[in-house]
User: Fold this.
Amino acid sequence: MKSPVLFSIGFRPWFLLFLVGGSLMFSAWGLPWLITSTGLHIDIELSPSLTDWRWHAHEMIYGLGFALLAGFLLTAVQNWTGRRPLPPIGLVVTTAIWLCARGTFLFFGMHSEWAYILSIIPEIIIGSAILFSVIRTSQWHNLLFPFSLLLIAFLDGYFSIHINEPNLQEQVAVMGLWPILAVLLFISQRIIPAFTTVRAGVRSNSLGSYAAIAFGVAPFVLLLLSFIPQIPGYTLLWSATSTIIILLGCWGVLRWWHPVVRREPMLLVLYAGFALTLAGLLIMTVSVLIHTNKNLAAMLWDAGIHGLGIGILGVLGPGMLLRVSAGHSGRSIVMPNWLRVFFITTPLIWLLRVFAPVLGYNPLMLGLSAWGMAAVYFSLLFAVGHWLLLPRVDKRS
Assistant:
């Protein structure tokens, strides 16, 4: 029996969950802040999770971040190998468990052991399925991808163990960002120059294999350092590693750039997301360098984390999602004119959230940045949701 279109290939269900989940999560997270900003006592019964920063941190990384990677990598592996890493029933089961995990965290809070178990199961299943596909086809150069997914599963469990520790916000809460960053940087250095070359009709200016290795490995060095922040030379090692990523990224943008990018929104959004991600990492680097000034360093660390996160989940990731969804549904790689308005607002959302710590975490700024992200997700859902549910328009399987 032929499987439903939605579960025919990995990007369809996982991108749909990413967009629906992101729309609802950001809307829910912004609501209490906007209510607070009014100064009025509005009696609305909200889940305690919606005012718990740990829920927000966990669900952005292990909920949305994982869904984004799952959609990309299940599709990419199928393209590379010609075989599905997971059959349709596997996609049904993993997405259903992912949904159950989100609901359990929302209604039972961040101390529910079952919530973490449910969250980790899809991470292990999909990471293992991609690992077996890579091993079966001897594509050892793609081991980064299953390793990152399985590492995310480990870090999800690590988050649960340290949920009540005082250093959770400083280090543990953001550990899952590093494998996500490694995957997206590695993919970016492959696809941004390739797409630019195709669009501009010029010779490719890729950075080469050494830069690719650096993009894929350096975020894991930052992750390793977050386990041992008391190591001698931590500040130097952290800032040197992050600086390598930033300088390589800037060099890449300069080499890849072509004037045609300014006239091609589907390319421009990838460049913008890549740049905002690097800018977030730069702010985090400054925070590490001025660690002796604890208050300012803490503010910059928070600003940098959110700059990095919005760069990944608000601009770069959605830009890739839009291109993959169009290409793999047989549609033209063109951004709808009305959707451009929402992507133009993403740098403003980035600025709103990055400057929030400096301005005393103004509730209105926090609420508007969250609802701004929700608007971007809702607009993308409106643009590509039906693409994910319907067969390819070119009738190809």
Summary: The longest helix spans residues 294-327.
